[in-house]
Amino acid sequence: MAYLISILGSLNMLRSTMLSKGVITGLLVLTSVGGANAALANEAAPISNAAVSHSSLALAHGVALQAGDQAHVMSDGMPIHINVVLKMRQQAELEQVAGLVRSRVRQPLTDRELAARYLPDHGDAMRVSNFLRAHGFSQIYVSKDNMIVSASGTAANVQSAFQTRLYSLHRGDKAGVANVDVVQIPSSLAGVISAVHGLRSFQERGVSGAKVATIIKGHSYGKDKGVPGAQSSAGTVACQECVHAPTDFPSLYGASNLAPANGQAVAVIGVGDQRNTTYLYQTWASAYGFNAIPLKVSYPTGYTAGDYEAQTEAVLDVDAVATMSGGLKEIDFYSAPSTDLGDELAAVTAAINDNRSTISLSYAATCDADIGQDLRRSWDQELSVAVAKGFTVFAITQDYGGKPGCSGGESSTGFPGSSPYVVSVGASTLYNSANSYSAYDHETLWQGSESGPAATEPRPHYQDAVASVVGAMRGTPDFVMDGDPNTGLWIIIGGYDSTGTYQTQWAVYGGTSLAAPLLAGTYARLLQSGIPPYFWQKTFYDIGEGQVKGIRGDCINCYNLLTGGSNGAYSVVPGKYNQASGWGSWNAGALATGMQFQR
After folding, report:
1. Which domains, and CATH codes, for the chain?
2. What is the pTM of this model?
3. Which residues form the Peptidase S53 domain (predicted)?
4. Residue 53 in this model has a pLDDT that exceeds 80
5. Alpha-carbon distance 253 to 260, whole Å?
């Protein structure tokens, strides 16, 4: 039986509309394939993928509908936010330079060196800006490195500029925009534009890695303020698999042996309206007697007022960074207008351009196998700049376990956590000792932590020592930190009730979204201790290999190698690097000493 197309309204009317206007105006639900009605199905599919004008260049094919899809062509006035990525100069050479920097062979590049040889020209960025403005786009932002031009417009503006109509598409549990036709650019910009993002958000959308606890152990609520009750620091404790106060984590991971990171700044990448984040953070810090770290919020490419959907993720990230750092010069929060990975990339780019040497990213697409190669290239292009500058991005693998349902079962890790230019972070279940909530006992893998090989990224050279484990592709994660929600962190969250009153409450959260900022905050302490801000992957792997083989006396316990656990696809191999948990978690004090010997 052929594609069975269920259409709201008359099928004959739909067909005549398609023939007369060249668009699809009804709702399409494709439910089966094969057979006699194939011609009708072909009429409903994208119709302009074959012909591209001689004066234009095709950048991306149209999205073909599949069985079960629900789609309709977006009306002309529907709002769209896009990010146009420009081509770098000498990209291959820059990747080589980045490799030398992360191998400690050469010093990081300066902004002047990058601009002189590698970054796009400002004149080219302005040509793209003028092109978008001529086709009706507004709110146009050009990144400081001229790499990304972001703009807001409508579906009609997209069709005018890039010759493609847009679907509103639901496919399984994914929903968003999909380009109907080939995405085209003028041939005059062929040497300038690398990709246009924002036109396939149905499969290129990041997801928060924050998960709320279902079990709360080891704490009681204070009756007066609802603040979590105090924990005993010695003697018999209520549990070993406990939720934790922020005062626990630095001791559990050895960071309390290092000075607070008061001279460092950490960048956190988030989404949406963050006007309440500072208040929630300051309330949380006050409850625990902390001096609040200055929190600077910026919106590099705009935002939608009242979009508080990502508020809890933001608070978790900021609280976790503050928890592990012990104090910072500032936390810089870069908020994207949406979770589309093109918007997230623009926010990361802004942090890199502002020379933030430590960046925490808690959004990822759960299946890197489903990410288009053009988006991969755009991220790797910008992230290679970060590495060449000596900056470190901590990115999550995601929270859907070892078999999250990726297309074709190709991969079980998240993107951009699969990039070779980030420190890829998974999540563990953290156990304190029987005598203290803040004394480390052991860790196992949290079952929700994603891991595994990248879909298309080849194994980077720093993983050659573990090639027998990861194979030919980049293995993830590199490290884990606590992320089991039931051993997670107390935070304060907020929201508006039906009367418009802002309400706050205590809650416990975990997920890989806890693990990445915990690691970023710990790294800030390492930098404060005198470790220069390099992308330290080669060093990280050298230290791990030396610890496992017992050949480096200065780092016999730098990493807490996990004792067990599985995510359904990969299992921990106790005492060794493995595909489930990488090198385990950090013992920060010992690691700082080990890294000093590696310099």
Report:
1. 56-197 (no CATH), 237-598 (3.40.50.200)
2. 0.89
3. 243-598
4. no
5. 14
